């Protein structure tokens, strides 16, 4: 009997170009932050059409530094979604602020814009929306709320490369945007992240803060001697990206459009083919609106037990995942902030039904068909 092929949920899209680029950095003996990082930052900023890109060690670090640079700290409140990875809220805790969750929209799975204003208090300083799966939040509406209440808009764009909202790339809309290059993201450097902003002053401080607050230029402006000297001009963190990572990032950026075309093609096959199963609700994707990055393909199971469904697919060698367990259901968030079951009913309802199907550029069309057919088989039994 023929072995059933295994369809992995996600795989990084790496080939000889990354291996060659990383080897070159290793051979150069300059392996930490250097010329490749600057090159990667420039190329990334250019792709998005944004003024500044600051490379860091992760998206979590990017979110943390974005909160620090905008002066958010102890006693402040930051509005975000419970339907996200813990990193989003974790970064808020790093600065001693409180993550204030607002329930999600049942269609888009993004933060419910309608519910934000009633969560704003005199302590609210920022909003961190998350573009779930790569579908953009309503940035126009978020900007209006932020302007009205004098809040900072820091978007978690971990899924949102390349996402467009009204023609602009995500990363060129919010005050500060945070991207992730973690192993399973649309482009990867193994671990890594990027902050983008059009604010010159923030960009300059972020560049210094991400590496111990050290400013070499500050000293050299005063003296040509003593190249070993430096000044420390701001609070510092060890959040720099290495040239090894940046070399890989440059290759991934070159392939970004190609990988996106493949994700888009497979998402469209799923959109069409899954229509034949009434038990499955495909992801929200309005015709002609925006550009979805298709980081995740999240379906909602209308009948039956979600866990059983995922398990049955697994037995058929189809690897799925679930995004996300709402943060307010976790022990830590309940103990630390007093959240409890029932606080965000839409996020909870959605969580019970969601399944993320395999979606990555390494799949073939026949892999996608196999996933669709196997779903049919599992639904029948
Ligand atoms: C992956 C992810 C992060 C964290 O990214 P890292 O680069 O691993 O720090 C943050 N937010 C969301 C929504 C993510 O999916």
**Bound ligands, each once:** pyridoxal-5'-phosphate
Number of strands: 14
Low-pLDDT windows of residues: none
The H/E string reads: HHEHEHEEHEEEEEHEHEHHEEHHHEH
- Molecular shape: globular
Sketch the major β-sheet.
7 strands, mixed
- What is the overall pLDDT average? 96
DSSP strand content: 5-15%
From the 3D structure, determine the CATH topology of the largest domain: Aspartate Aminotransferase, domain 2
User: In angstroms, what separates the terminal alpha carbons?
Assistant: 22 Å
> Count the helices. How many?
13
What's the CATH H-level homologous superfamily of the largest domain? Answer: Type I PLP-dependent aspartate aminotransferase-like (Major domain)
Order of strands across the main sheet: 1-9-8-5-4-2-3
Structural class: alpha/beta
Provide the fold topology.
Layout: H1 16-28, H2 35-48, E1 52-56, H3 59-69, E2 77-80, H4 86-94, E3 98-101, E4 124-128, H5 139-149, E5 152-156, E6 164-165, E7 168-169, E8 176-180, E9 193-197, H6 200-209, E10 214-215, H7 216-220, E11 231-232, H8 243-254, H9 256-273, E12 280-281, E13 297-301, H10 306-315, H11 331-337, H12 345-353, E14 354-357, H13 365-380
Parallel strand pairs: 2-3, 2-4, 4-5, 5-8
Antiparallel strand pairs: 1-9, 6-7, 8-9, 10-11, 12-13, 13-14
Pyridoxal-5'-phosphate (PLP) binds at residues 58-60, 84-85, 87-88, 130, 156, 158-159, 180, 182, 193.
């Amino acid at each position: 009997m023929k072995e059933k092929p295994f369809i992995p949920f996600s795989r990084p899209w790496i080939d000889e170009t990354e291996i060659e680029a990383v080897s070159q950095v290793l051979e150069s003996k300059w392996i930490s932050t250097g010329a490749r990082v600057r090159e990667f930052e420039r190329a990334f900023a250019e792709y998005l059409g944004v003024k500044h890109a600051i490379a860091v060690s992760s998206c979590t670090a990017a979110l943390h530094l974005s909160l620090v640079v905008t002066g958010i700290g102890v006693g402040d409140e930051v509005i975000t979604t419970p339907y996200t990875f813990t990193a989003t809220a974790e970064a808020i805790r790093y600065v001693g602020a409180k993550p204030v969750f607002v329930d999600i929209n049942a269609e888009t799975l993004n933060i419910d814009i309608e519910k934000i204003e009633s969560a704003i208090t005199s302590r609210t300083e920022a909003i961190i929306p998350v573009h779930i799966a790569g579908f953009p939040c309503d940035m126009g509406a978020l900007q209006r709320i932020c302007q009205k209440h004098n809040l900072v808009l820091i978007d978690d764009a971990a899924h949102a490369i390349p996402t467009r909202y009204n023609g602009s790339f995500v990363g060129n809309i919010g005050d500060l945007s945070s991207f992730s290059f973690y192993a399973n993201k649309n482009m990867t450097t193994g671990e890594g992240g990027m902050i983008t902003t059009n604010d010159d002053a923030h960009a300059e401080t972020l560049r210094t803060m991400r590496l111990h607050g050290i400013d070499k230029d500050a000293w050299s402006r005063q003296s040509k001697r003593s190249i070993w000297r430096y000044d420390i001009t701001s609070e510092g963190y060890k959040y720099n990206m290495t040239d090894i990572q940046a070399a890989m990032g440059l290759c991934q950026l070159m392939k970004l459009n190609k990988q996106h075309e493949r994700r888009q093609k497979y998402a469209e096959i799923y959109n069409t083919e899954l229509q034949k199963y009434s038990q499955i609700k495909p992801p929200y994707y309005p015709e002609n609106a925006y550009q979805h990055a298709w980081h995740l393909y999240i379906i909602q199971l209308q009948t039956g037990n979600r866990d059983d469904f995922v398990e049955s697919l697994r037995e058929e060698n189809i690897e799925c995942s679930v995004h996300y367990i709402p943060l307010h259901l976790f022990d830590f968030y309940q103990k630390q902030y007093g959240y409890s079951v029932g606080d965000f009913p839409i996020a909870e309802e959605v969580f019970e039904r969601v399944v993320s199907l395999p979606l990555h550029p390494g799949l073939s069309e026949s892999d996608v068909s196999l996933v669709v057919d196997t779903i049919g088989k599992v639904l029948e039994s």
